[in-house]
Amino acid sequence: MLLENMAYTEVETYLNEKDIILVPVGSVEQHSPYGLIGTDFIVAEAIARTVGDNMNLMVAPTVCYGVSPHHMAFKGTVALSPSTLIIVAEDIVRSLVAHGFRRILFINGHGGNIVPLETAFRQLKDEGLSGYFDVLSWYTEAGVKQTCREAFGDNEGHHATPSEVSITKLLRPSAFSGKAISEQKVEKPKYYWPLTAAEMRTFFPDGRMESAPWLATAELGKQIVAKAAEDLEQKIKDILTLNVL
Ligand code: NI
Q: How many whole angstroms separate alpha carbon 239 and alpha carbon 32?
């Protein structure tokens, strides 16, 4: 059930029964020579829509851009600053609350978005806004972590992971013609965080972080989407039992 495809009258009908909405959020950032710049939002959107279909929940349009300034030394990255995402998230939540939504869950595909989103929710609560606001990252629950670990072991890494690249291979197979395919060394440098864009490129010259994205396959992508959705559905079932004031 996609908000973008509904008439306002259908939103009214939905709100008579439910007060929950999923908001996919990702990033527009380099994912090495092996992966798509849109990876994070493509994956978050697909998983949010799978959960929405399985649970009959409304899914809002995707927030494609995210907080990626540390990827700016790679061409094509388009980064929001943390303060911008805070403002965007606050306006989205305020709008949805104004219509009667009370459980607003950002389904996230990019680590850099988490702190700004949590800051936005904190600020909204401090203003006195009613509701339950949360960010659920598709890759952090125990079940999907185990699936990714079983598939890729130590080659999963932290950025341009074979897991996220597998999901995009499933969803956008034609986008992979022309992408790198050769195996490289998986380096594990000792580094600190956060990094500037220049530091990021020095530690991780081709944009991968400790990952082997050439191992990605669409078949594994299918399994990972299913597991991530299952994990999130469990979590959302709990959230639906909360007495949200
Ligand atoms: Ni990513």
A: 36
How far apart are the C-alpha atoms of 114 and 207, rounded to whole Å? 21
CA of 159 to the centre of ligand 1 (A): 6
Residue 232 lies in a domain: yes
Q: What is the distance in A from the centroid of ligand 1 to the CA of 160?
A: 6
Confidence (pTM): 0.97
Given this model, what pLDDT does residue 195 score? 97
CA 71 – ligand 1 centroid, Å: 11
Rounded Cα distance, 158 and 219, in Å? 21
Q: Is residue 53 part of a domain?
A: yes
Ligand 1 geometric centre to CA of 24 (Å): 14
Here the CATH number for the domain that contains residue 37 is: 3.40.50.10310
pLDDT at 90: 98
Cα(110) to centroid of ligand 1, in Å?
6
Dump pLDDT digits (tens) for 79-109: 999 999 999 999 999 999 999 999 999 999 9
Per-residue pLDDT of 210-230, as tens digits, reads 999 999 999 999 999 999 999
- Sequential DSSP letters for 52-118: HHHHT-EEPPPB--B--GGGTTSTT-BB--HHHHHHHHHHHHHHHHHHT--EEEEEE--GGGHHHHH
Question: Is residue 33 situated within a structural domain?
Answer: yes
Is 131 within 8 Å of 104 (Cβ atoms)? Answer: yes
